[in-house]
Design brief:
Blueprint (H helix, E strand, L loop, with lengths): L8 H20 L1 H18 L1 H20 L18 H12 L2 H6 L2 H8 L8 H16 L1 H19 L12 H4 L6 H35 L8 H21 L1 H26 L2 H24 L6 H31 L6 H9 L1 H23 L4 H4 L4 H9 L5 H31 L8 H21 L2 H38 L14 H9 L4 H25 L4 E6 L4 E6 L7 E11 L2 H4 L11 E9 L13 H19 L5 H4 L9
Antiparallel strand pairs: 1-2, 2-3, 3-4
Helix pairs in contact: 1-2, 1-10, 1-20, 2-21, 3-8, 3-14, 3-15, 3-21, 4-12, 4-19, 6-7, 6-16, 7-13, 7-16, 8-14, 8-15, 8-21, 10-11, 10-14, 10-18, 10-19, 10-20, 10-21, 11-12, 11-19, 11-20, 12-19, 13-16, 14-19, 14-21, 19-20, 23-25
């Protein structure tokens, strides 16, 4: 029997060859591979770190502009689309996918590592504590979510607004058009699939180590050995596959809700049993410090502070690279659950709400740990700063109900593990199938099995660090790709806004319905150059000659000017002290859409360009197509602009615009 599959060979086969190949090399030659990739990563971080700094800065500026500007009301879908999920469900899923295990892994470890870092050793403890909070806010704040937001917004917009596949290739449609369906599109999706797989594999590998460490400290497991890690992976990946197979509306959504409720309970426990007043005060002050330092942190490359440059590479640049490498996965997942939201709603939620929660979370856990280290732990927590796997559980020893809360933390990590893995499995299958609506369950399970086998292989061989370096290296080219997403988005949004807000043509203003049959023929016909020239030589010339006669009868000196290439005809009224009044008609052309050319329900066109007579004015205002004007309507239009001209020159405040000795002359 032939197995049914929705996998696309042009994406899946090259991706699997590259993924398995890199993992095998990292497992067989872990030290050599890690050494080589570390050199490449070091070169990028030291010499090209400015690319990450500028890219992330542009992402933040772009999203703030989109959120507050005229494009904010555009909906991710049809104009009458409604969100698929409630606000709480939506927020829970994007949050669980976006940060996941990292919140548990770094909430105590990162502030403690900044606090105890040797480069800050000469500073007073209070200043080091403030800086630890500030840098943690910086790395887990607006900048991180802006990276996810750009990818998620581009994917959601082009998928639901343009009705393209939910794939990274779709984000290039305004730039590449139908080329996204071919090899270029496959290359983009292959890159996204590999990047997603590497990011999830390394993160989940480190997550398993933390779970194993916690179980050892609880006395549930005797040691942190590979056998125990394999059992943990087998159980968790099985749960992840079951969740992914059940779909977004069941497993993923349910676990995400449980997750967010559980972390809020843990957060409140630490806040209440820890130094509550200190935590609230430090959080408040931390927000102010972050806002005051926002721009200096954003653009700081530490080029004038050589002693902190290594720290800058190992933290800020590594974080930017890590978030960028995860953005195809997180962005695609966020896009998948965001149909029906407006752009303003999407960006506000993605950029502000998770950032604020991260700040609260990091303040409560990080500042509690630092306070305990200074007042109760006698420096024991800072001495363990490098042991990220066990630091959270050591921290809990200084709070009540240690054993119960340690088990609770392990359960949260387990759920985070499952939600990250199941959403990752869902995303990888989505990329490999070009967003197939229904895939066989064995196929979804296959991604989970591959993920677990390669993660365990790398854990056993010590190749996770090499794979992590590989993931961070891929962030550099993808940061450039993300900048192109912005270019593509801006181009598409401008077209979108113009399409839905374009008003009726100026030529429709004087219509009475008297000549409706003739107008219909003109509307559906494609005019060539000769027809545009004919309108100028007949209708426009007759209108201008009648006007010339009437102007002269009223004592106004006027004349008619003309040019042949391109065809132009204008009526000009001469003045000595102000600009001459000019109303002209010229032959213009524009390219016809291929869709219109291939439409059988319209007359055929011999070429992909249409010609039309277009008005122009002496003050260089934008003109419009006048082909549907009759002679009398064209005369009326000239007089309308002449009346405007007289009204403007009668006001003294406009003298700077109307006084000129550069009056128009035909050569």
């Amino acid at each position: 029997m032939k197995l049914r599959t929705t996998l696309k060979q042009g994406i899946t086969i090259p991706s699997l060859i590259f993924i398995v190949g890199i993992c095998l090399i990292s497992a067989i030659y872990p030290r050599l591979t890690e050494a080589l990739l570390t050199v490449v990563k070091g070169f990028i971080f030291v010499n090209l770190n400015w690319i990450y700094v500028w890219a992330v800065t542009i992402f933040v500026i772009f999203l703030v502009y989109i959120m507050t500007g005229k494009y904010g009301n555009i909906r991710l879908g049809r104009n009458d689309s409604k969100p698929d999920y409630s606000f709480f469900s939506w927020l829970s899923m994007l949050f669980a996918a976006g940060m996941g295990i990292g919140l548990m892994y770094f909430s105590v470890a990162e502030p403690m590592q900044h606090y105890s870092n040797g480069i800050f050793a000469g500073r007073p403890p209070i200043e080091r504590a403030q800086n630890a909070q500030l840098y943690t806010f910086f790395h887990w704040g607006v900048h991180a979510w802006a990276i996810y937001g750009v990818v998620g917004l581009a994917l959601a917009y082009f998928s639901y607004r343009y009705r393209l596949p939910l794939s990274l290739r779709s984000c290039f449609y305004p730039l590449l058009k139908d080329k996204i369906k071919g090899k270029w599109g496959n290359v983009i999706d292959i890159f996204a699939l590999c990047s997603t797989f590497f990011g999830i594999t390394t993160t989940l590998g480190f997550g398993v180590v933390q779970i194993n460490s916690g179980l050892v400290k609880m006395g549930i497991l005797p040691e942190t050995g590979f056998i125990y890690q394999a059992v943990i992976v087998a159980v968790l990946v099985t749960l992840s596959v079951l969740s992914a197979v059940s779909g977004l509306d069941k497993g993923v959504k349910l676990l995400s809700k449980i997750n967010i409720i559980a972390v809020v309970i843990l957060l409140l426990f630490v806040l209440i049993t820890g130094p509550t007043v200190y935590l609230i005060g430090s959080f408040t002050e931390g927000i102010g410090t972050y806002l005051n330092s926002f721009f200096s942190l954003t653009f700081n490359t530490h080029v004038y502070e050589e002693n902190t440059q290594t720290w800058f590479y190992d933290w800020t640049i590594l974080y930017w690279a890590w978030w960028i490498s995860w953005s195809p996965y997180v962005g695609l997942f966020i896009a998948r659950i965001s149909k029906g939201r407006t752009i303003r709603e999407f960006v506000s939620a993605v950029l502000i709400i998770p950032t604020l929660f991260n700040f609260i979370w990091m303040s409560v856990f990080g500042n509690s740990a630092i306070w305990l280290d200074m007042n109760a732990a006698e420096g024991q927590l800072s001495q363990m700063a490098s042991d990220s796997d066990g630091l959270m559980f050591k921290f809990l020893e200084y709070l009540p109900f240690t054993d119960v809360m340690s088990i609770f933390v392990i359960l949260i990590i387990l759920i985070f593990f499952v939600t990250s893995a199941d959403s990752g499995i869902f995303v990888m299958n989505n990329i490999a199938t070009k967003n197939a609506r229904i895939s066989p369950k064995w196929q979804t399970a296959g991604w989970g099995i591959l993920l677990s086998v390669l993660a365990l292989m790398l854990l056993n061989a010590g190749g996770l660090a090499a794979l992590q370096s590989m993931t961070l290296i891929t962030a550099l080219p993808f940061s450039v790709i993300m900048l192109l997403f912005i270019v593509s988005l801006i181009k598409a949004l401008m077209i979108d806004k113009n399409y839905y807000e374009r008003n009726f043509s100026s030529t429709t203003v004087p219509w009475s319905g008297e000549h409706w049959k003739e107008r219909l023929k003109q509307i559906v016909s494609f005019n060539d150059s000769a027809s545009a020239d004919l309108y100028i030589e007949t209708t426009a010339r007759e209108a201008f000659e009648d006007l010339l006669t009437e102007f002269s009868a009223n004592g106004i000196e006027a004349r008619i000017n003309s040019e042949e290439q391109p065809k132009k005809l204008e009526i000009e009224i001469k003045y000595d002290l102000i600009n001459n009044f000019i109303y002209g008609v010229k032959s213009e052309s524009k390219i016809i859409s291929e869709f219109l050319l291939n439409e059988e329900n319209l007359p055929d066109s011999e070429e992909n360009r249409v010609y039309f007579p277009k008005s122009y004015f002496g003050d260089n205002r934008e003109g419009y197509d006048v082909k549907l004007f009759t002679k009398n309507e064209l005369i009326s239009d000239v007089l309308k602009h002449y009346e405007r001209f007289i009204d403007i020159i009668s006001e003294e405040k406009n003298s700077i615009f109307i006084s000129s000795d550069a009056n128009h002359r035909f050569k």
